[in-house]
Structure formats: C-alpha cells, structure tokens
C-alpha cells in the first residue's frame, strides 16, 4: 500500500495501522476510534473468531498493541480485524476491516516463524466491462503476493482499456495483456502461489507460461469446473466473482474470429473499461458469505 493510500485510509477508517510493515520484534500498534462503545474482533481468514487475552472493549480513541491482545498474531497466518459497536453483531462492523498477514519465509529452512507482518484494508474490486460490472473478492490467505500485485495494478489504472483477448468457450475468459495477444505483461513476474482453492466457476486465476513463476498481469475467470478442475494446484487461484457472472457469460459468448474452438480472439473486443478497487464496508461486503458473517454473533 502506497504512503498516500495509507494516509487516506487512516482518514476514512475507524481502525488504521500505524505502519504497513511490522518486524516481529516490534509492537503491532493500530489506532482505533469510535463515537461510542465498541470492541475489536479478530478472526482467521475462514471467519472463525479468535479469543482475546485481554479486554478488547474501548470508547472514543486509543492506540493498541494487537500482540498484547491477540498472541495468535505471532503465528504465521492471515487474519481479519474488525471494530464492532457495542451490542451489534459482527456483520454490522464499523469502517473497513484490516487484513493482517503474518508472513514467514517459505523459501528457507528453519522453524517457519513470523518474519514480517503486513497490515492493510480489506478490499474488493469491480471489473467494469461493456457487458456489465463484475465484482470480485480475493484470497489474501493463499495468494498474498498475487493479490497485492493485482490490486496495485488495478488501482493505478494498468488494466484500464485492456481487453479479454482470449475466450475459450466452456473453459475461461482471459485478459490483462497490454499487447492484447497473450505475450504481454507488466514488466515483472509474480511467483507461483499454487494452493488448494479449486478453480470453480467464477474463480480468478493467474495465466502463465510453462515456467510456474512466469505470471504477471494476465488473469482468467473460470467458466465450468468440469473443464477447469485440471488447473487445480497448477495455477494460482487468487479470488472469485461474487456478483456479475452474467457479464462473464456474455463475454464468454462473444463470437470468435476463429470460430468456437478451444482458443479464440473475439470479433468485437471485450474491453475492461476500468478495474475499481474499493474498501469493504458493512454495507458493501463481497466477503460476507465467504466469512459467514451473516451467521456470526
């Protein structure tokens, strides 16, 4: 998260980090504020609430060291922190939740303890197309580097006016190439983050060449798990469509220059007008079903 984005987030949110990256030996300090009585709630990325060591209730404004409240944050993993008004269910949280990624170095032998912690707002994206908007949430827990790259490219306008240049009927729609021919990228590669999330209908995943670490900006949206199941654990699934599959299917049905074969370039360009990155709020929360917040007390 850029410094400007961090400063803006601090202005508009009720919970904000004092920095983006935290070394493990330093306090994990955040600022909290509320007009009335409220409490902090920490969950894992599956939505399970975690117990606090000390009281998490507060009123008005204060700074807190999360490590004193939640020793679990010394263990590598991905967590979500909410501020909840007193007497309200978790689904009615205030402001924008924080994603807390406690990272370890996977490329080096050892105990695998926390190496650094990254903190930022929980975000989603709206892919605006001529066929309608496509809303997507992201798998911060299993593909953090891929998610960070995609969100950064999106918020800085990289994808604006690019296309879904490849349509494979019943398989995927693929886009995000500045050249429009399947050979372009952002000038850097994203390491593979293969994971156990299946390539179900609506899942976003990174395109790549034969080298697993050759991903960049090109991504695809899955159409039929009967055909995309073969991609499981071989491509980086990093998010999923939560609304707008109608637009995805309209793009997938576009006439192709080469007929309806396995691969094809649309006769009419299927344009990604913009990708807008938005902070999650209680009113606009594509993660609600994924985290089971509607059922949370």
- Could you list the spans in which at least 5 consecutive residues all have pLDDT below 50? 1-12
* N→C terminal distance: 31 Å
Total beta strand runs: 16
Largest sheet report: 9 strands, antiparallel
Shape: elongated
The chain-level mean pLDDT equals: 91
Sequence of secondary-structure elements: HEEEEHEEEEEHEEEEEHEHEH
Note the total helix count.
6
Structural class: alpha+beta
Q: Which strands sit side by side, in order, in the main sheet?
A: 10-16-8-9-15-13-14-12-11
| Rg calculated over all Cα atoms | 20 Å
Strand content: 25-35%
Helix content: 10-25%
Task: Summarize the structure in words.
The protein is elongated. Residues 1-12 have low confidence and may be disordered. The chain has helices at 3-12, 66-69, 144-155, 225-228, 245-252, 288-291, and strands at residues 15-17, 21-22, 29-44, 57-65, 77-85, 94-103, 116-121, 123-129, 132-138, 162-163, 166-168, 172-175, 203-206, 219-222, 237-243, 271-279. The longest helix is centred in the middle third of the chain and has 12 residues, at 144-155. A hairpin with an 8-residue loop joins strand 5 and strand 6. The two termini are 31 Å apart. The protein has a 9-stranded antiparallel sheet with strand order 10-16-8-9-15-13-14-12-11. Strands 1, 2, 3, 4, 5, 6 and 7 form a 7-stranded antiparallel sheet that branches. It is of the alpha+beta class and 297 residues long. It contains 6 helices and 16 strands. 14% of the residues lie in helices and 34% in strands.
